[in-house]
Every structure is written in structure tokens, then in C-alpha cells.
Task: inverse folding
């Protein structure tokens, strides 16, 4: 059994300069990497807005086995610290219920 989590950040209010945004994205990526380093976890993807969009955002998807779910509370605390450090109101955290829809008879 696993838990799928989506983590999203943004800079649509332009609080961050480009250099600060870049550092914020890297800091969040490093925090997520510190969790997905462990067995029983996986990073499924990292996405970001197109450079020409009028606002900036980034999203990560991670999967954590129930046995390793204790890592998530530490990650949440680290992300809250990063939000504060970078003067952000919040970081979005969404836990998904994943359903696999089959397309074959296998």
C-alpha cells in the first residue's frame, strides 16, 4: 500500500525575483529528494510552468509506502520552513487516491 502526494509551489504574486524563485524551486526539490532517497519511496515527476507564462509554478509527485509514511511529517515541516524562509503564504500538499483503470485482459 502506498500514498501518492502532489506538492505545488507558485510565484504568481511576484514576491520572488527570478533568482529567488530558482533557489526556492531547488530548495523544495532538495527537500523532496531527501525523502525519495529512501527505499519504499519514489519521485514520479517534476513539472513547472513554461518560461513564457505570466506566472511561475512547479509541481512534484511522490509515492511513499505506508511503511515509510513517517517521513511525510518531516517533509511537511521542512516545506513549511521553506515557505516561511521564502515569504510564501503556503505550499500546496495534495494526497491522491489513485485508481488504476485497466485497458487489457491481462
Result:
Amino acid at each position: 500500500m502506498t500514498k501518492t502526494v502532489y506538492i505545488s509551489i507558485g510565484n504568481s504574486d511576484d514576491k520572488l525575483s527570478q533568482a529567488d524563485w530558482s533557489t526556492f524551486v531547488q530548495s523544495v526539490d532538495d527537500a523532496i529528494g531527501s525523502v525519495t532517497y529512501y527505499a519504499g519511496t519514489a519521485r514520479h515527476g517534476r513539472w513547472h510552468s513554461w518560461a513564457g507564462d505570466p506566472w511561475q509554478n512547479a509541481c512534484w509527485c511522490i509515492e511513499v509506502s505506508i511503511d515509510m509514511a513517517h517521513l511525510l511529517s518531516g517533509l511537511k515541516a521542512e516545506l513549511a520552513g521553506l515557505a516561511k524562509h521564502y515569504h510564501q503564504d503556503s505550499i500546496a500538499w495534495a494526497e491522491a487516491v489513485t485508481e488504476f483503470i485497466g485497458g487489457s485482459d491481462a
